[in-house]
Amino acid sequence: MKNFTFKINENNYSAKILSHEDNIIDIEVNGTSYSVKMKEDIKTKKTPTFVRTPSKSSAEPVKIKSTSTKTTITAPIPGVVFILNVKVGDVIKENDQVMILEAMKMENSIAAEKGGTVTAVHVAVGQQVLQGDVMIEIE
């Protein structure tokens, strides 16, 4: 199987592994055969291979029905309110543009996720908002 050469205390040794089964190894050193029993079994480590299978479900977004009739529009990113298109009492439809938020020198259009009546506006033009701040409430 494998041949090795060792030098121990200025003496040369030639070793040849003849067989290896479980924890028993037959070895020949300088022409003399030995059967060596290992203390414990040699365990081979197997690295798992993960294979991702394609999803069988459709790629349509999941729609969650809310029991509450109140909806809030929150800031998706930190920025400054550039244009405010609604005021309290306005009736809006789904996907109507309610405001423009300026962030990183870009104007980001903020649309209503659902229609309804604007019940509260918590921001004003020029006001800075942080990500997650509630800006508008719709009922």
TrEMBL record:
SUPFAM superfamilies reported in the protein's UniProt record: Single hybrid motif
InterPro entries xref list: Biotin_BS, Biotin_Carboxyl_Carrier/Decarb, Biotin_lipoyl, Single_hybrid_motif
Ranges where the Lipoyl-binding domain occurs: 61-139
Keyword Phosphoprotein: no
A Pfam family: Biotin_lipoyl
PROSITE patterns in the cross-refs: BIOTIN (PS00188), BIOTINYL_LIPOYL (PS50968)
Keywords of the record: Biotin
Domain of life (superkingdom): Bacteria
Gene3D superfamilies hit by this protein: 2.40.50.100
Official protein name in the record: Lipoyl-binding domain-containing protein
Organism in which the protein naturally occurs: Pseudalgibacter alginicilyticus
High-level lineage: Bacteria, Pseudomonadati, Bacteroidota, Flavobacteriia, Flavobacteriales
